[in-house]
Design a protein that fits this description.
Elements lengths: L1 E3 L21 H15 L3 E6 L2 E8 L3 E8 L13 E3 L4 E4 L3 E6 L2 E6 L5 E5 L2 E6 L3 E2 L4 E6 L6 E5 L10 E5 L17 E7 L3 E5 L5 E5 L6 E6 L5 E6 L3 H12 L13 E3 L6 H13 L6 E4 L25 H10 L3 E6 L2 E3 L5 H6 L14 E3 L2 E5 L5 H17 L3 E4 L12 E4 L4 E4 H4 L3 H16 L7 E3 L11 E3 L8 H4 L2 H9 L21 H11 L22 H16 L1 H14 L4 E2 L18 E3 L3 E3 L9 E6 L3 E4 L5 E3 L2 E6 L7 E4 L3 E5 L12 E7 L6 E8 L14 E9 L4 E8 L10 E8 L8 E3 L2 E2 L5 E4 L4 E8 L4 E5 L1
Parallel strand pairs: 20-21, 21-22, 22-26, 26-29, 29-30, 40-44
Antiparallel strand pairs: 1-5, 2-3, 3-4, 4-19, 6-7, 7-8, 8-9, 9-10, 10-12, 11-12, 12-18, 13-15, 14-17, 15-16, 16-19, 17-18, 23-25, 24-25, 27-28, 31-32, 32-33, 33-38, 34-37, 35-36, 35-38, 39-40, 41-42, 42-43, 43-49, 44-48, 45-46, 45-49, 47-48
């Protein structure tokens, strides 16, 4: 049964009301509870407190929400939870002093005397919530931490992976030109994850603080100036399952269109129509793959200031935009435009915005005006349905012109007066800016996403935004890490930022490759290293201020040659990357995965912020300092191979790799399958009908498995309608023989191949095979090769998708 998350407390399936002031006997309470359980089921518990009600609700995946409803106060909306949350069964047990509310393996034990709560996973104590402080001016939820607990979370910050000992503003604000330290950035998240494998989400969109043992050593504190009085505790026995439980409540990331994983041309910014067309020609001439071009603010004005809010083509800079978009589309290049939520008083739409009352208001009900970098402005009230309709029409018109994606910038909002007033139409509430500041980008993304589903219901939206809130992933949001300094110090925190965000559902967090701000002199090595790393991050998008070209096609021949090979590798690896996207959309598993996923008992791995797992098979350790001649990596357990030369390394130790400018430290786990395709220069040419399946053999790996996800690359309903296929691979190996089993879970979709030509590449096979068989028959010598120097076998087979086995002896 489904329930609206904003009203479920009013429609509870079971309410056990405990009038503690009168204190009934334990037996009487239990008898009443049992009667209600039998009649109505058991999903929620309401406890009467002196100040109001406390509602405990069982949510999917071992999660419990605690919501305080003050007497006479209207419930503030939840932005974090998805719109429909499935009800789950819970169990209530009563004693003289405590009430236990149990959901799966997670229990909340409520103290009747002071309303403090202790959370357990089975019999293991996870965390204790002290008596809260709740008033109109301040909301505080405090939790007790263990002495040795490591805590991640808070969203985009540059503080190290363990955020303990920091007090962080919960207020989205851009940090221009940041590098190796930042306590406040564009995308704060009011949530933490403990190494004890629980997660606490403060479901509050207001201005506040997250204090992790800074003010008081062993106290985790969520503070806000008002808003929703609620938090949710999640629990699981593994980190991936904990993330899965979190996205079951906050929402899963929809699949992106396949072209989103290709190469972007982007800068601040292309100043006119001819420059856009020339840049696309330049990529083609230099033999660089390209799928998209992003046009910054010059599309609505000839200079930087004074034009924000026009939201229409400037005919001096872009005289024939529809012709340009059509020409690009004929070359299979997607056009993406920047938009901002500000309407300058000097813009062409200012009077219309004022007349139609679509801007946030001042205390008199007039449009709230204020100054910021771009000029005197108002802010679109994206919470108001009237404003949403006005703003959505602009996006509809752009989509009808052929625009393929939306880039939402400045959506913290960059400047947001606390005393501006917004109207939340869905809840019929008038609120000040400080109460919903952190949800502004989230609500904006929701508006764009839902509008795209209306006008193009069959296609997957592309929505890139700088700021959001917990749960923004369910609206397809692709965040980036803001206006980073163009330097080695700017590169250093990028892995940390993506890993932290990925733990909380935002698996597509990525950086402006090469750095955005400053950098008066081109640093060739830094630039190459950053763009090499980008091949192994979720979105590949070089972007910067244009006094130094961010696009590799404008640099020297060596730089172009190195980066051309890397970008082409990115395209060859699309089946592997796309499979990670499927895993993210179905389970919440991030594409970039922290090293502590490998050994959850080793707390020291939590602190690793310069290496990560790229999917199941690859370990990536970007080079982040100049002139590095050797590079150290701590390998997890098992056997690992150098991705570039197949050199074998035993794991569970520190290894030192030689470096070269042409390669990046990337290791492959022994027993891994990596599906690839042959070279393409645009995803329009993508096909996995000819598939290259790499397998990394080693006698120490007696069995292993892998998979590949495939669909048509564009349809929004691929997952829900089962219009996809899963190719599954497994291996068994001993000293004499290797067997690779192939199977396919077949679901029809447009363009699904009926059979595949497979080139199976087996790495680290020590001698030429005596015999190779497929489907019980021998493979002739003309259909396989063996390279003695690289120890590699290449076998060509045709697979009709029935279960099949390839064996080598």
């Amino acid at each position: 049964m489904n329930k609206s998350s904003s009203t479920f407390s009013k429609n509870l399936k079971l309410t056990v009301i405990l009038f503690l002031a009168f204190f009934l006997s334990s037996c009487a309470i239990l008898s009443h509870q049992e009667q209600l359980t039998h009649q109505l089921g058991n999903h929620s518990l309401v406890v009467k407190s002196p100040s109001g009600e406390i509602v405990y609700t069982a949510l999917p995946g071992d999660a419990i929400e605690v919501l305080h409803l003050q007497s006479g106060e209207k419930e503030f909306p939840s932005f974090a939870k998805k719109e429909l949350v499935n009800s789950v069964e819970a169990k209530v047990v009563e004693s003289d002093r405590f009430i236990t509310f149990q959901n799966g393996n997670l229990s909340a034990v409520i103290n009747k005397s002071d309303f403090s709560v202790v959370f357990y996973r089975d019999s293991e104590l996870l965390v204790r919530q002290k008596k809260p402080i709740l008033s109109k001016e301040k909301i505080v939820f405090d939790f007790e931490l263990d002495d040795s607990e490591k805590i991640m979370g808070g969203g985009e910050r540059v503080l190290g992976m363990d955020r303990r000992g920091h007090r962080m503003p919960l207020y989205n604000r851009a940090h221009y030109g940041y590098n190796t330290e930042s306590n406040q950035m564009s995308f704060s998240l009011p949530a933490i994850m403990s190494d004890k494998k629980y997660l606490v989400l403060f479901d509050n969109s207001a201005s506040g603080y997250l204090d992790i043992g800074k003010t008081e050593k062993n106290t985790l504190s969520f503070e806000a100036v008002g808003g929703r009085n609620a938090y949710i505790v999640f629990s699981a026995k593994t980190y991936p399952k904990l993330i899965n439980n979190y996205v079951d409540v906050t929402g899963k990331q929809p699949m992106l269109p396949r072209w989103a994983f290709g190469n972007f041309a982007s800068r601040f910014g292309y100043k006119n129509q001819q420059q856009v067309l020339d840049i696309v020609d330049k990529f083609k001439h230099e033999d660089f793959p390209l799928d998209s071009v992003i046009i910054d603010l010059y599309w609505f004005g000839s200079d930087i200031k004074g034009h924000v809010g026009n939201l229409d083509w400037d005919k001096t800079t872009f005289p024939a935009p529809l012709k340009m978009i059509k020409e690009l589309k004929q070359q299979h290049i997607n056009t993406i435009l920047v938009t901002e939520p500000f309407i300058l008083s000097t813009s062409s739409k200012w009077q219309e915005a004022v007349d139609q009352k679509i801007l946030a208001k001042d205390e008199h009900g007039d449009a709230k005006r204020f100054d910021f970098y771009f000029g005197n402005t108002g802010l679109i009230d994206v919470f108001d349905k009237k404003s949403q309709d006005w703003f959505s029409k602009i996006y509809t018109d752009l989509s009808m012109q052929g625009i393929a994606g939306v880039w939402g910038d400045l959506g913290e909002p960059e400047v947001h007066p606390d005393d501006s007033f917004h109207f939340i139409s869905e809840n019929n509430m008038k609120v000040t800016g400080d109460l919903i500041h952190n949800a502004y980008g989230h609500q904006w993304a929701k508006m764009v996403y839902e509008n795209q589903l209306k006008i193009q219901p069959k296609l997957r939206p592309f929505i890139m935004m700088r700021s959001g809130f917990s749960g923004s992933q369910r609206y397809g949001m692709i965040p980036w890490t803001g206006d980073v300094d163009r330097s080695w110090d700017g590169l250093k925190p990028q892995v940390e930022l993506s890993l932290q965000m990925g733990l909380f559902g935002m698996g597509y967090t990525h950086s402006d490759l090469g750095g955005f701000a400053g950098g008066e002199v081109f640093d060739k090595e830094m630039y190459i290293r950053w763009l090499q790393y980008g091949v192994f991050q979720p979105i590949y998008r070089p972007h910067a201020q244009d006094h130094i070209a961010p696009e590799p096609v404008f640099h020297d021949q060596q730089t172009k040659d190195i980066l051309r090979d890397f970008i082409k590798l990115r395209y060859r690896m699309l089946p592997y990357i796309y499979t990670m996207a499927y895993q993210n959309s179905t389970t919440g598993m991030p594409l970039m995965r922290p090293m502590f996923f490998e050994d959850e008992a080793d707390k020291n791995l939590i602190d690793v912020k310069n290496s990560y797992l790229w999917g199941d098979a690859l370990l990536v350790s970007p080079i982040m300092v100049a002139n590095e001649t050797t590079h150290k990596i701590k390998l997890p357990k098992g056997v690992w191979f150098d991705f570039w030369n197949d050199t074998r390394y035993d794991g569970n130790r520190l290894v030192t790799l030689p470096t070269s400018l042409e390669t990046l430290p990337v290791m492959v786990r022994g027993g891994s399958f990596i599906p690839m395709i042959n070279e393409i220069n645009n995803t329009q040419n993508y096909s996995s009908q000819n598939l290259v399946l790499h397998y990394y053999a080693d006698n120490s790996v007696s069995s292993s498995s892998g998979m590949m996800y495939e669909d048509d690359g564009v349809s929004r309903s691929s997952l829900e309608n089962n219009e996809f296929e899963l190719l599954e691979f497994s291996s068994k190996q001993n000293e004499r023989q290797l067997s690779i089993h192939l199977s396919r879970k077949k679901n029809e979709y447009t363009g699904s191949p009926q059979q595949r030509k497979l080139e199976v590449v087996i790495h680290h096979w020590k001698t030429k095979p005596k015999k190779i068989q497929f489907l019980g028959g021998s493979i002739s010598h003309k259909n396989y090769t063996y390279d003695q120097q690289t120890k590699t076998v290449r076998v060509l087979i045709t697979w009709d998708h029935d279960d099949a086995e390839l064996t080598l002896e």
